[in-house]
Amino acid sequence: MLVQSIMKSVFVLKFRNDNYSLERGILMFVDNVKITVRSGKGGDGAVAFRHEKYTPLGGPSGGDGGRGGDIILKANEGMNTLMDFRYKRIFKAEPGQNGQIKGMYGHKADPIYIKVPTGTSVYDEDSGRLIGDLVDNNQELVVAKGGNGGRGNIHFANSKNQAPEVAENGEPAIEKHIKLELKLIADVGLVGFPSVGKSTLLSVATSAKPKIAAYHFTTLSPNLGMVKLENGLDFVIADLPGLIEGASNGVGLGIQFLRHVERTRVLLHLVDMDPNNGRDPYEDYLAIRKELGNYDANVLQRPEIIVPTKLDIEGSEERMAEFKEKLPADADIFPISSIRHTGVEALMNHTSEVLSKAEPIHFDVQTEETKEYNYEPNAKAFTIEKDPEYEHSFIVKGAKVELLLQRTNLDHQDGIMRFARQLKSMGIEDALIEAGAESGDSVTILDFTFEFI
């Protein structure tokens, strides 16, 4: 009955540290963006027949459609920014070419490669699911797979139907909204309250030139520097913006930059020994540890070197002695004065030794070079519900049945009949009757409506 009703209805219906941008004169850090990606639709299979002069009964010759283009993210260690995505946020791949006569296949569309910095985490914005982590150079992640091409009528000939007017449409494109988060890949992270000397230490130990000033939150974005040592054990160090109590709950700069601590293998915890700052060094130390633990408890299990700073100020030695008495006996302490460069070289050498013994951080990534993210639709084939706006009208939903409609070429009678048979074999006709559908009622799948008989 579905064959007749669909045949009747078909004729009615026919997606600098370069991490900075200059906005209104303010230097801003960009480490997370949202983009839209859309793969290419598969090419449609062709319905064609051979008409050569000396080839009687030539039979079907419609070729297959080509595959649509993929959207692939590729990690590039030469990049250190998500800045480019502030100006282009929609990426679309080309569709595959339709099948041709004489059994010729359509061309496959080229994939679209999107370069991202190493250390980029990719999330599905709609579900919040982690799609993948790109931490190695040239690592690839297919975030939107191009649709497969449809089969031409050359595949549907059989002994009963030697001239089939049946072909498949290509698979539809996949559009996804994804979120990119850059988490800096540094070996060592500098943490501590604002104005404890992190930027000063970075400028002394490396060739980096962070902004340094005598007020809180001078550093508004992470800075990276390379520490080069005579023993050859070089490492990358990151100066993270100053944390304060409550940062893990959004106070101050909040958790905006706490994510960058995740990838560091060793922490240098700087604590201010200035006796005139009105603060208790030990309380500051505990407060930062608490915020790190609230964000990610695993961070507290990593090696930590406690670095008392500003030892050039009068009275700082006595203050440091009191501070050390409150720490555990096995605490790793290295006092410095970045202004006088006292202890900095020894601290860097010691850090390289600790780093060489630190456990590597394991990321949840695939071992092969390219990983593919596949959208997993609802396993249920279809559902049937009454249309609330129209009486005697039913709506059929489901990823499987909707894909079946999208891949069916309804321009030919044989295609219509094949589609109706497939719906019947899926149990949709029986399900409609069970739901109360009667002859004359309308049935809708996506934007296709037919009369139920």
UniProtKB/TrEMBL annotation:
Its cofactor is Mg(2+). Residues 186-356 form the OBG-type G domain. SUPFAM superfamilies: Obg GTP-binding protein C-terminal domain, Obg GTP-binding protein N-terminal domain, P-loop containing nucleoside triphosphate hydrolases. Its EC number is 3.6.5.-. Transmembrane segments: none annotated. It is found in: Cytoplasm. It is an enzyme of class 3 (hydrolase). Mg(2+) binds at S199, T219. One of its GO terms (cellular component) is cytoplasm. Its main location: cytoplasm. Keywords: Cytoplasm, GTP-binding, Hydrolase, Magnesium, Metal-binding, Nucleotide-binding. Monomer. An essential GTPase which binds GTP, GDP and possibly (p)ppGpp with moderate affinity, with high nucleotide exchange rates and a fairly low GTP hydrolysis rate. Plays a role in control of the cell cycle, stress response, ribosome biogenesis and in those bacteria that undergo differentiation, in morphogenesis control. Belongs to the TRAFAC class OBG-HflX-like GTPase superfamily. OBG GTPase family. This is GTPase Obg. It comes from Companilactobacillus kimchiensis. The gene is obg.
